[in-house]
Amino acid sequence: DGGITQSPKYLFRKEGQNVTLSCEQNLNHDAMYWYRQDPGQGLRLIYYSQIVNDFQKGDIAEGYSVSREKKESFPLTVTSAQKNPTAFYLCASSKQGSGQPQHFGDGTRLSIL
Amino acid sequence: EDQVTQSPEALRLQEGESSSLNCSYTVSGLRGLFWYRQDPGKGPEFLFTLYSAGEEKEKERLKATLTKKESFLHITAPKPEDSATYLCAPLGYSTLTFGKGTMLLVSP
Known about the structure:
heterodimer; A: about 110 residues; seven-stranded mixed beta sheet; four-stranded antiparallel beta sheet; 11 strands; globular; B: about 110 residues; mainly beta; five-stranded antiparallel beta sheet; 10 strands; about 0% helix
């Protein structure tokens, strides 16, 4: 079955540590996205990529980095510069073109040790 | 700045008791509006896309409608398995803006 796989499901970060969240899709979608979800808030866009080897900052990109070397993969690194990283991180993908719905993975929950 | 407000924040219904969820938005250059369902600890599941005022979409007990300033998600004769958080997200010029969601609980 086609879908989006995020791993790990739970992740713990120590002070000063960078951690990388994995996102893989086999839907043959061109566009991929990373969101952060905090309790009582809407999803907020971190980064998005509409094509391989290109990506744009979203609303809250500070303290995060991404790469898009393959169409299927869009890993997110939470760096030590992100001072409040505890959140539920969601990856999504969509077909290219105006008004295409985004389809989501089941998330990674990141916590601070 | 694009803005989205969903109401109510939480809604408790008895099984079979129909109701509506509201999504009010201020978005420049609306290109569509999406509804999602999210279960605890899971990613949002796509339900509907609405592209223009007056459009309606239906799926089982759910019907979504769109006007120029708001969208409604009507739930007819809900069942306990309809319990979830429902998110709306209008699409402006470039990216989606998500509302905070309405948490729906349907009791048997």
